[in-house]
Amino acid sequence: MEFGAAAIEELCRHLKENQPPCQRIRLTVHPANEAGVKFYTTLGFTENHVLTYGEPTFSLFLRGGNQQQGYRS
Known about the structure:
The chain contains two helices and three strands. By secondary structure, it is an alpha+beta fold. Strands 1-3-2 form a three-stranded antiparallel β-sheet, with no helix packed on it. The radius of gyration is 12 Å and the shape is globular.
C-alpha cells in the first residue's frame, strides 16, 4: 500500500502544479475488489453513487468541489 499511496500523492501534486483547472480525480473499482475500495477510501476518495460500466465510481477532489478537499499528505 505504501507505493500505491505514494503514487497517488505524486499524481495529486503533479496535477495541482501542472494542471490547475483539474479539480478532481475519478476512477472505478470492481465491485468485488474490497481491498481496492478500502485503499482508495483511505486516501480520501469518496463514492459518487454512480455506476460506470457497472462499477462504482469514486472521486478525490483536489480543490474546490463540495466534498473531500484533496489528498492529505
